[in-house]
Amino acid sequence: MISSYTKTFIDISIPILVFFTMIVVGLDLTVEDFRQVMRKPRTVVFGTLGQFIFLPVIGIVLVHMLKLEPYILSGILLIAACPGGAMSNFYVYLARSNTALSVTLTAVSCLLGAITLPVIMKVYGLYINNPFDFSVPLPTIFAQLLVILVIPTILGMCLRHFKPVFTKRYEALFRSVSITALTVIVGFVVYQEAGNLLLGITDTVLASVVFIIISMIFGLGIGSILGLNAHDRFTLLIEFSVRNIAIATAIAVTILNRTEFALFATVYFLTQVPLVVLAIIFFRRLQPNRQVLP
């Protein structure tokens, strides 16, 4: 059980961090990004629906198949329910794939997350019979996601539109601050739960690797079914495997009041980075002359 001081720190710092981070994400978005939805409706629709449908199914299957600690299983379900993470845009850029498609998918995923996430978690209760002893406060989750996800994203877009010089000058700084703050807060959570984390580190990494690889395969498979080119297929591979760790941590700590659930999200991120980097290196070697897409 964490101390009252630690809980107060987490309850205050994480929502503020997520709010600020989503403003930064909004700084990278314009109305034109959403027009991409109309220009590539099939890719965006199936790419988005695929994440919201198949990832939770993968999570449920893994929960039934793997004999792991409850907090690890809960972490899998939470990660699977979360929208895509903004880091996917950077990964896609490094891979010289379709950055515009990545930004569009991430934006749509995050904006719809306020609706889909609580619905998915409600469905979990129907199929898993709530074995991990926590309830999902649907109205509270919807309200908090609206405040810390949708509103700051729109604020960031407005700031970019009305203050373009300011945005261009400070966007990199804001991004660095958000990444640093996330690192500090996640490190604090790990420090508080170090005993639990070390106790199940092998199982946690194994569960993360399995979920990430299966998610990549599904993303690549959907891209192939849609008949997309190699660069768009790789973009879907990244989008499916990169989840919004900040949102997962915020829900685990501030809404579900279970810091141990955030441990899986932390290990997931640390496991995700090398796997995605390896995928990028492999893809770049297959596409040596590819130019960076806008």
Descriptive notes:
Helix content is 83%, strand content 0%. The chain has a single domain (4-286), classed as Up-down Bundle (Na+/H+ antiporter like fold), CATH 1.20.1530. The longest helix is centred in the middle third of the chain and has 30 residues, at 99-128. The chain is an all-alpha fold and 294 residues long. It has helices at residues 4-27, 31-39, 41-65, 70-81, 87-94, 99-128, 138-162, 164-192, 194-199, 201-225, 230-241, 245-255, 259-286. The chain is globular and about 45 Å long. Helix 1 runs antiparallel to helix 8, helix 2 crosses helix 3 and helix 3 (41-65) runs antiparallel to helix 4. The protein has 13 helices and no strands.
Secondary-structure topology with pairs:
Blueprint: H1 4-27, H2 31-39, H3 41-65, H4 70-81, H5 87-94, H6 99-128, H7 138-162, H8 164-192, H9 194-199, H10 201-225, H11 230-241, H12 245-255, H13 259-286
Helix pairs in contact: 1-7, 1-8, 1-12, 2-3, 2-6, 3-4, 3-6, 3-10, 4-13, 5-6, 5-11, 6-7, 6-11, 7-8, 10-11, 10-13, 12-13
Report the helical percentage. over 70%
CATH class: Mainly Alpha
Strand content: under 5%
Q: Radius of gyration, Cα only, in angstroms? A: 18 Å
Order of H and E elements: HHHHHHHHHHHHH
How would a crystallographer describe the biggest sheet? none
What's the count of strands? Answer: 0
Distance between the termini: 48 Å
- Overall pLDDT level: 79
Helix and strand composition category: mainly alpha
> Do you know the CATH topology?
Na+/H+ antiporter like fold
- Runs with pLDDT <50, length 5+? 131-137
| Whole-number total of structural domains | 1
- Any guess at the CATH architecture? Up-down Bundle
